[in-house]
From TrEMBL:
Residues 82-105, 254-268 form the Glucose-methanol-choline oxidoreductase N-terminal domain. InterPro entries: FAD/NAD-bd_sf, GMC_OxRdtase, GMC_OxRdtase_N, GMC_OxRtase_C. It comes from Photobacterium gaetbulicola Gung47. Residues 538-557 are annotated as: Disordered. Keywords: FAD, Flavoprotein. This is Choline dehydrogenase. SUPFAM superfamilies: FAD-linked reductases, C-terminal domain (SSF54373), FAD/NAD(P)-binding domain (SSF51905). Belongs to the GMC oxidoreductase family.
Length: 557
């Protein structure tokens, strides 16, 4: 049985929740949000430290893997992505970071009109309610609550001092005028709970009569008639159903899901999808190309003294036996930690003008995405390569819509990436080995001779993996770009009634975490969609007036 909506949004992640909320603000518009995962009512999602249970498991998590990566000595990479309302914003470390202003100016320079930093900033501010910063760079009153950590570890101050000791100054706001520097992480939390895109945008508006939210509904294809998207087919409870869109279908399934769905629908490069038995209805070779992701390497140390860190120990059990009731009753205490309590942006070399590396300081031992457990307390730091030149792909393994996509980031396939990573490896080690941590720092998990570049490179290839920021697989660009999938309005090239709105449209990676930029993209897209609808209504009204005037004139003849 088919049902009509004005707009269908596929994917209830960071972008999809924004779109569903913003488009349904108009009571005359009907919106259906279709999400493959379940609801976001789990305490693991609401309690900030719950991410440690979800990230390494399949709890609310697609838990994808890459194909074997030659650049990682043949290892498969791990790719956790949120599978619930809120998407990855419901399982991530809640870090609020936007990227460098030059990232967005670069998008505009590639022919994407309207996407410069000054044109994106109003949408960052529209989304945001920052409890700490109130200036030209930040917003108040938006749905997404941003604040400081309630109960940071005492070790955080040591991290900031250690950064200072190697020339990375304290910066009270890496999202403000200047990105360079280190600070305590700002987080998307509200009153001690995770403030995911679902909690920010969707939950307050679920009672709207014009908004339908379908969960545990896997979209299997976009229905296209001629060159227009008219609906979607999805599976829920083992039953195939079709719903139609009178205005638009908007795909917001993420950097993996969006190209997968387009290809399943016959939209993509014919040479990729035709051999799988899928009819090619629209040739678009850029679908699934241009995958970019932040490659990341973690250094971890045990603590040799009783510092305020997380770990598997009797002491931790005692701490949590007090912390959990505190959070349940007052939403305060250690349960509000995001683990990744420190952030920093810096330069690999003195001649670099835009930070190209990032630190993320974690008050626990991190090994293989927390999939390897250590029975000690400790601390870690992530080193992230912010603008890798390597490019990968997301393609179909089969025509089965329930099969995971074939993810191939091609880490370190570009020769320029490894030297920057090695330089960053040395800076991270210098920071962690500074005298600031003397008396705190115990044994290192994976010691390597820091004077041996070959050994450092092998350490990186043996242990590096994603920092969870895949983008670019439905690239935004002008029609003159053969790899562009959407235009600057995020409309799919060559088709009507179809847009892609999520991190997959980023033509290049931003130099920071990607959740805040994805929400910004959706806020901006919502305004574009509303404007298109208003323009269409005005044209229809004008045409009707013209027809009426013409009929009156004929009657008078």
């Amino acid at each position: 049985m088919m049902k009509d909506y004005d707009y269908i949004v596929v994917g209830g992640g960071s972008a999809g929740c924004v779109l569903a909320a913003r488009l349904s603000e108009d009571p005359q518009v009907t919106v259906c949000l279709v999400e493959a995962g379940g609801t976001d009512n789990s305490m693991l999602i609401r309690a900030p430290i719950g991410s440690v249970a979800m990230l390494p498991t399949k709890l609310n998590n697609w838990a994808f893997e890459t194909v074997p990566q030659p650049g990682l000595n043949g290892r498969k990479g791990y790719q956790p992505r949120g599978k619930t309302l809120g998407g990855s914003s419901s399982i991530n470390a809640m870090m609020y970071a936007r990227g460098h202003q030059a990232d967005y100016d670069h998008w505009a320079s590639l022919g994407n009109e309207g996407w410069s930093y000054q044109e994106c900033l109003p949408y960052f501010k529209k989304a945001e309610n920052n409890e700490i910063h109130a200036d030209e760079y930040h917003g108040q009153g938006g749905p997404l609550n941003v604040t400081d950590l309630q109960c940071p570890s005492s070790l955080l101050a040591h991290y900031l001092e250690a950064c200072e000791s190697i020339g990375i100054p304290a910066n009270p706001d890496v999202n403000g005028e200047q990105q360079f520097g280190a600070m305590a992480t700002q987080v998307t939390q509200k009153n001690g709970e995770r403030c995911s895109a679902a909690r920010a945008y969707l939950t307050p508006n679920r009672d709207r009569g014009n908004l339908t939210v379908l969960t545990k509904a896997t979209t299997t294809r976009v229905v296209v008639e001629g060159k227009r998207a008219v609906g979607v087919e999805f599976s829920k409870g083992g039953q195939r159903q079709v719903i139609t869109a009178t205005q638009e279908v908007i795909i917001s399934a993420g950097a993996f899901g969006s190209p997968q769905l387009l290809q399943l629908s016959g939209i993509g490069h014919g040479k990729d999808i035709a051999p799988l038995g899928i009819d090619v209805i629209h040739e678009l070779p850029g679908v699934g190309e241009n995958l970019q992701d932040h490659i990341d390497l973690v250094h971890s140390f045990e603590c040799c003294s009783r510092y305020d860190t997380f770990g598997f120990s009797a002491r931790m059990l005692a701490t949590m036996s007090k912390a959990l009731p505190q959070w349940l009753l007052k939403r305060r205490g250690k349960v509000t930690s995001n683990f990744a309590e420190g952030i920093g942006f810096f330069y690999s070399e003195p001649n670099v003008t835009i930070p190209d590396l990032e630190f993320v300081f974690v008050v626990a031992i991190v090994d293989d995405h927390a999939r390897k457990i250590h029975l000690q307390h400790g601390f870690s730091c992530h080193l992230t390569l912010l603008r890798p030149k390597s490019r990968g792909t997301v393609k179909l393994e089969s025509a089965d819509p329930f099969a995971p996509p074939r993810i191939d980031p091609q880490f370190f396939s570009h020769p320029d990436d490894m030297p920057v990573m090695i330089a960053g490896w040395k800076k991270q080690k210098q920071m962690l080995m500074s005298k600031v941590f003397d008396g705190i720092r115990g044994a290192e998990l994976y010691p390597v001779d820091e004077c041996d570049n070959a050994a450092i490179e092998q350490d990186i290839r043996n242990r590096a993996d994603t920092q969870y920021h895949p983008v670019g697989t439905c690239k935004m660009g002008p029609s003159s770009d053969p790899m562009a999938v959407v235009d600057s309005e995020l409309r799919v090239h060559g088709l009507k009634g179809l847009r892609v709105v999520d991190a997959s449209i980023m033509p290049t990676l931003v130099g920071a975490n990607t959740n805040a930029p994805t929400i910004m993209i959706a806020e901006k897209a919502a305004d574009k969609i509303k404007a298109a609808r208003t323009e269409k209504c005005q044209r229809t009204k004008q045409a009707g007036t013209a027809d009426k005037s013409h009929s009156v004139a004929e009657l008078g003849e």
